[in-house]
Amino acid sequence: MIPPFIADTGGLLRALARNADGQSSFPEYESVLRSATLVIVPALVLAEIDYFLRQERAAMRKLVAEVFDPATRYEYEPALPSDVVRALQLDVRFANLDLGLVDGTVAAVAERRRIYRILTTDRRDFGAIRVGPHCNFFVRGFHEKAASCQPR
To answer: I need a labelling partner for 37 at 20 to 30 A (CA). Which of 12, 47, 72, 142 fits?
Structure first.
């Protein structure tokens, strides 16, 4: 089992993607999803996934059912007003990344929950963001340990 992580849109979509034969399109992502102790799905990520799955409503309904089923490892995380404010602060602080509200909220939820593992395809953005009282790096690979840096 791997420790809890926050699911970003791209990472979760890859973890759930299937080939025409029903096999996982990205087995390394699926493996992480299946072996996690907890998968935290921020509300704005779920909304963005809905946008990408607008032509695949059955897949979206299945995901929503799993996220809200207490027997799964998923945990739905509503965006708090403080998360949205923090997301906008991070968007300004890391303006060169063009984070936007969804990625900023993922970072804000991770910071608030003190869970610095992000299942994402967006390594450029989440690899550059530094958050928290010890200026933690987001961990993109699940074999790495969170490091700390001097606040900027």
So the answer is: 47
60-77 burial code (b ≥16 CB/10 A, e <16): beebbeebeeeeebbbeb
pTM: 0.84
Has residue 145 been placed in a domain? no
Residue 85 contacts residue 109 (beta carbons within 8 Å):
no
Residue 54, domain member (yes or no): yes
Helices 43-52, 57-67: inter-axial angle, 10-degree rounding: 160
In a domain, 92, yes or no: yes
Quick one: tokens of 34? 């299946």
Task: Record the tokens describing residue 101, joined without a space.
Answer: 């509200």
> Domain span at residue 65?
5-137
Measured in whole angstroms, how far is the alpha carbon of residue 8 from the centre of its chain? 3
**pLDDT tens digit sequence for 101-121:** 999 999 999 999 988 888 888
CATH number where 118 lies: 3.40.50.1010
Residue 97 lies in a domain: yes
